[in-house]
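This protein record is not my work; I was only asked to verify it. Take the sequence as given and treat only the tokens as open to question. I have pasted the whole thing underneath without changing anything:
***
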Amino acid sequence: MNPEDVGRARKVPSVVLFDFFGTLVEYSASRTEQGYERSFAVLEEAGCSLGYNDFLQLWSSLSERLDTEARSTLREFSMAELGLAFFEKAVPGKASAAHRARFLETYLEEWNQGVRPIPGLVDMLTRLATRFRLAVITNTHDARLVPRHLERLGMARCFEAVFTSVEFGLRKPHPAIFEHAMRSLVTSPGECLYVGDDEVADFDGAAGAGLPALLVDPLGVSSVAPSAQLSSILELESRLAGGGD
């Protein structure tokens, strides 16, 4: 398939697949700016002697190391793996599994403060769900994270399924996760459209699985053809009404 044609659906799809972070919600990927005082308190209870800034630096460096490995291998890592590596350095030989679990739960709660709804999106998805089958394919380190956000934001009822990299084991842009989603939904590339905001993970990943795709690119800085770009996710409804032209 010609890359310039990947973003142009040949017909109105019956299934629309979405990325989550950056596509269905705005978010901060920062591991420091949200503020992690409650997480730090759990660490102190577990016997950690690091200062607050040292805790953030260690957590960020280990996270980035695992992310770098995952970008290379496309094997996804879990929060549990990250937590175990972190506690081995932060609280060697002292922390219980219960402390690790409470720290990870608290950390995610604080990180989630950077996840923000997109005004008008729930209404649009509610309308689309009456015409299309909707599902999410997302990279994430915790299987519960995205479903919880969908519930919190009032979107869950719109989606038939959520496919996560941490459950599947491979992250986007690996074509296998897209193929897995289509098999589970009993559909094919010709019946689907994929919508995401990352040129490599989403657009190129979908293309690798033969999926037509649209890229949410508000600044128009990607190398994707203009016909395959959306300046806002809220343009999707009108694009679908036009049959993908």
Summary: The longest helix spans residues 52-73. DSSP finds eleven helices and six strands in the chain.
